Amino acid sequence: MSLWTAAEAAQATGGRAVGEWACNGVSIDTRTLQAGDLFVALKDVRDGHEFVAQALEKGAGAAMVSRVPEGVSADAPLLIVDDVLAGLEALGAAGRARTQATVIGITGSVGKTSTKEMLRDVLSAQGRTHASVASYNNHWGVPLTLARMPVDTEYAVIEMGMNHPGEILPLTTLTQPHAAMITTVAAAHLEAFDDITGIALEKASIFDALPIGAPAVYNADVETSAILAAKTVDKRLNGLAFGENGYEYRLTSVDIQGDTTVVQAQAQGAPLLFKLATPGRHFAMNALGALAIVDAIGADLAQAVTTLGNWTPFKGRGVREVIQLDPSEPGLALSLIDDSYNANPTSMAASLEVLAGAQVVDGVGRRGKGRRIAYLGDMKELGPDAVALHAGLAHLPATQRLDVIHCVGPLMKSLHDLLPEHQRGHWAETSFELIDTLRRDLDAGDCVLAKGSLSMKLGLIVDAIRKMGHPVTDA
What is the CATH number of domain 319-474? Predict the structure, then answer.
C-alpha cells in the first residue's frame, strides 16, 4: 500500500495533482531520496525547486512544488500548492489525522533525541512504531515526520525542539500527542530567552495540546520543575514526575559498571531494576522518563525493561567505539566517545562525568599509561553569560579527574586559560587545526571524548580518530 496517492495528497494540501501517481515516502533532500518518494521542494539555503528535475531523474514518484520548475515538463508528476512549507504542514496534519496510533511528544533542553530513540526501540518490540529521524524536530522536521507516518502505525514518537519563544506550541498542536514528556530544562538557547524560567515555560507548552487526563511526564529534579508541574495542573493532566525527586517514578541508585549502567528505581511505588548497555547517569535518567511514558500509555513495562537493556546511544550523542590502532596487535586500541552533535552546560557536565569514570588501559602503547582525554568545543547560544559558563567547567569534579583537555573555539579559551598546566592541552580556533597532532597526542589505552556544539565541527576530530585505525566494536 502506498503512503500517498495523488488524490490523497491533493485533498490533504488543497493542491492540484498533475498526473496519477503514488508515493511510498516523503523526502526533502535529493542526496537521501529513495525511488518512489514524494520530493518536497522546500526553500532553505537554496530553493528546492532547483532540485526537482534531479529528484525526478533519481526516481521520485512526484514533487510538491509551488510552480513548475525550469527544466521540468508540465506533465511531470507534480503536486502544485500555493506554498510548499504550508503544503508540507497540511500533509503532516493529514498524516496525523488518519492514523489510530498512540502518539507521544518529547521535548527538553537535553536528551530528547536519546530518549526518543529509547522509546523507538522499546515500542518497536511491541507494535508498529514510527519516530522522528535523527533530530528532525523543528518547523519542517515535525510535519515531515508526520507526513511520513504509515496509516497502520501503532506507536509514534515525535521529537520537538526550539530555539526561540513560541516554537513548541505550533508543533504540539500539529502533532496532537496522547502523551508528552519533558526530559529536562537547562541553560540552552539563552540568547533568545531572558532566563531559564522562560525556557521552562516554552518547554511546558508541549502539554498544551494534550487531552484532559493525558500523561504529562516531566523531570522533577530541575530547578524549574514547579513550572512544569503547574502546567499539568492547569491543563488537568495526569502529571507524572520522574527523577531523584520524582514522586511517581523515583531514581534511587545508578551504578556504572564498565560499559553498563545498572539502575534501581521505583515506579508508582513498585521496585524497578533495569540496565543500559552504555555508561552514563544522564542516560539512566532519560531511560526512567521513557519507562514512565511506556507505563503511562499502557504498554508492557517488563518487556520494555528487557528491550532497553540492549540500547546504545545514537551517532554523535555519546556512542562509544573501540578504535583498533594496529590490526596485528589487538591490545593496541583506544576508546572513543563521540558526543559531537551538540552541547550545552548540562550535557557537557554529563559527558565529562562519563569520561571521568571511563576505564583506561595501562601497559600498552608508547606511554604505557592510559589517559582520559577530552576535545571540547564551544557551546553556542548561551547569551551574555557564555564566557562564565565555559569557564565554570573548570570547577566541575569530573573535569578535575581528567588527564588532558584540548579546547576548540573562542569561548572555550576561557576554560583553557583556567586549566592547570598538567591538564592543559592544545587550544585552537577550529577543530580542523587539531587534526594533524592527533597521532602524537593520542595513544593506545586512552579514552577520548569529543563534545561541542554542531557548528564547532568536532565530528572532524571524531572522523580523524577513526581513521587512525578502524572501529572494531561498540565499547
Answer: 3.90.190.20
User: What fold does the segment set 4-82 form as a domain?
Assistant: 3.40.1390
If you search the block for the grid coordinates 568545543, which residue do you land on? 377
The predicted model gives 61-77 an average pLDDT of 93
Band of residue 336 on the pLDDT scale cut at 50, 70, 90: very high
Fold equal for 4-82 and 99-308: no
Mean pLDDT of 358-376: 92
Domain-by-domain residue ranges, the chain? Answer: 4-82, 99-308, 319-474
| 373, 442 Cβ separation under 8 angstroms | yes
Residue type, 219: N
Is residue 248 within 8 A of residue 240, CB to CB? The reply is yes
Binding residues: 108-114
As a whole number of Å, the CA-based R_g of the chain is: 24
| Number of neighbouring beta carbons within 10 Å of residue 388 | 10
The class of domain 99-308 in CATH terms is alpha beta
Residue ranges of the annotated binding site for ATP are 108-114
363: left (phi over 0), alpha (psi -120 to 50) or beta: left
What span, in angstroms and rounded, lies between the C-alpha atoms of 40 and 144?
9
Task: Answer yes or no: are the C-beta atoms of 448 and 337 closer than 8 Å.
Answer: yes
Question: What is the rounded average pLDDT for all residues in the chain?
Answer: 93
CB proximity list for 202: less than 8 A, separation 6 or greater: 162, 165, 166, 167, 168, 193
336 torsion bin: left (phi>0), alpha (psi -120 to 50), beta (else): beta
Is 258:360 a contact under the CB 8 Å cutoff? no
Please give the full DSSP string across 217-247, using - where no structure is assigned.
Answer: EEETTSTTHHHHHHHHHHTT-EEEEEETT-S
Rounded CA-CA distance 453/49 in Å is 31
- Nearest residue to 446 via CA among 336, 351, 352, 349: 336
Note the pLDDT of residue 189.
Answer: 59
- The number of beta carbons lying within 10 Å of the beta carbon of residue 422 is 7
Residue 289 · residue 157 · CB < 8 Å: no
Identify the CA nearest to 22 among candidates 76, 73, 61, 79.
61
Q: What is the pTM of this model?
A: 0.82
What gap in Å lies between CA 307 and CA 301, rounded to an integer? 10
Distances in Å between the alpha carbon of 350 and those of 142, 195, 345, 346?
27, 21, 9, 6
DSSP label of 385: G
What would the mean pLDDT of 267-289 be, rounded to a whole number?
93
β-bridge partners, 289:
none
pLDDT tens-digit readout, 140-192: 999 999 999 999 999 999 999 988 889 999 999 999 999 999 999 987 656 66
